Amino acid sequence: MGKNDFLTPKAIANRIKAKGLQKLRWYCQMCQKQCRDENGFKCHCMSEGHQRQMQIFGQNPTRIIEGYTEEFETTFLEHMKRSHRFSRVAATVVYNEYINDRNHVHMNSTEWATLTEFVKYLGRTGKCKVEETPKGWFITYIDRDSETLFKEKMKNKRIKADLVDEEKQEKEIQKQIERAEQLLQLSNPESDQPSQVETTRELNAEDGIKIGFSLGSSAKPLTKEKGEASIMAFDEVDTEKYEERNPVNNLKRKESGGGKSTLDEMIREEERKKEKINRRDYWLHEGIVVKVMSKVLAEKGYYKQKGVVRKVIDKYVGEVEMLESKHVLRVDQEELETVIPQVGGRVKIVNGAYRGSLARLLGVDTDHFCAKVQIEKGAYDGRVLKAVEYEDICKLA
User: Fold this and answer.
1) pLDDT (tens digit, 0 to 9) for every residue of the chain, 397 residues total?
2) Across-strand partners of 20?
3) How far apart are CA 166 and CA 52, in angstroms?
């Protein structure tokens, strides 16, 4: 066995000493050689190989330092991206992890003399969020990946689109309210009151006229035939009103003087029975558009995103296909919300008396959180429901 053989005690001892990291001040970046002590580093600096590398360095030192600087920064940020992409961590921790690689670019070959200078540089250039604390410097990686930026851009675009849709809906609702007020003013002109007063005065002025009372809902005109006149002084109407959710329709009913008829009472009784039978604690149906409200899924970008229910599992769970990403999620109905389309859109009644019926949205009452719909198909085709809660209707896909 030779003096410097691989398995000699001295060779084994040298490998043990060389294992792991050595002192930074005894490392030559140009030659990429690590020396174990000061004497070894001094001998290396006097060698011919090192002298040739230093001649190359002397020809263009700025370019070589910039190259090492760029390589150090790139590899450091790459390690930061892999290991601490979304966390706030001490700069010294990241640096110690980075230098575990024996072949890394050393900081003494870059334009930064200390780690503090490098951390400040990252903060100035916006590549990391930098914080100085009593425990030292802490950094947070700022992800500027093209895919991440695209997702952020699309997210902002969706938020702006939602805001525009909400503004349009509010303007449309405001226009409907103004139209309703104008119709009320036209249907109840103030000029009707003087004529009633004049009619009353005529009754007091004339003698020998028979006065009749009509108990119907419409008044007959004042008539006089062959000396015998029959004048309808006023109409008596039934004052009992049933409560409606839509205040505009309720007001119109009061102004028109209409009371409860037997047919209306029968219809309401039928609706109460159907409401009791068809009201359930589950409302998911296939083919409706829903909005995901689960904050657990917010990190993956599904929060407040819309999708179509493709399948209902055990009445309470739905398989939802997202409209944008086409991903299929299995979500409980407690984490879903119904979607109200624009006026004129088709909806499905998902709960209540007319559960399962298809209808068209005629209007929205934002004050009472209900909508006016007209059933389109089935046994109740053409029936108008004036006050259906938002939770009981949902947009069709």
Assistant:
1) 456 677 787 777 766 665 655 666 677 777 777 777 777 888 888 888 888 877 887 888 888 888 888 888 888 888 888 888 778 889 888 888 887 776 778 777 788 888 888 999 988 888 888 888 888 889 988 877 656 666 677 777 778 777 777 788 888 888 888 888 888 888 776 544 444 444 444 444 445 555 554 444 444 443 434 334 333 333 333 334 334 444 444 444 544 444 456 767 777 787 788 888 888 888 999 999 999 988 888 877 888 889 999 989 888 889 999 888 888 888 888 889 999 999 899 999 999 888 888 999 999 988 888 899 999 877 778 888 888 888 899 999 8
2) none
3) 72
Per DSSP bridges, beta strands 336-338 and 289-292 are: antiparallel
Three-state secondary structure call for residue 365:
strand
Tokens of 146: 């093209």
Decide: pTM greater than 0.85: no
Dihedral (Cα; 5, 6, 12, 13), 10-degree rounding: 40
Helix (H) or strand (E) run with residue 331 in it: strand 328-332
Q: How many CB atoms lie within 10 A of CB 279?
A: 13
- Measured CA to CA, the distance from residue 356 to residue 381 in angstroms comes to 13
Q: What is the DSSP string of 14-76?
A: HHHHHSS---GGGEETTTTEE-SSHHHHHHHHTSHHHHHHHHHHHH-HHHHHHHHHHHHHHHH
Distance from the first to the final alpha carbon of the chain: 83
Task: Tell me how far CA of residue 308 lies from CA of 27, 313, 326, in angstroms.
Answer: 62, 14, 10
Question: Which among 256, 255, 261 has a CA at the least distance from the CA of 242?
Answer: 261
DSSP sequence for 193-216: HHHHHHHHHHHHH--S-EEEEE-S
Backbone phi and psi for residue 218, each to the nearest 5 degrees, phi listed first: -125, 145
Q: Name the helix (H) or strand (E) containing 132.
A: strand 128-133
Residue 1 to residues 6, 7, 13, 115, 397, Cα–Cα distance (Å): 9, 8, 16, 47, 83
**Cα torsion for 119, 123, 128, 131, to the nearest 10°?**
80
CB 360 within 8 A of CB 344: yes
In this structure, what DSSP letter does residue 381 have? T
